[in-house]
Amino acid sequence: TDSEIKSLKGNPVEVIENAKLLKSKKSMESKIMDPWSENSKYLIDLITYYFNYGKSDSIKFGRKNMYNDIQKSIYYAFLKAVGNEEEWMFSENQILLGKRIYEYVDDMVNNQDVNDQLKKIKGIIG
Question: What is residue 111's predicted lDDT score, i.e. its pLDDT?
Answer without folding.
Answer: 77
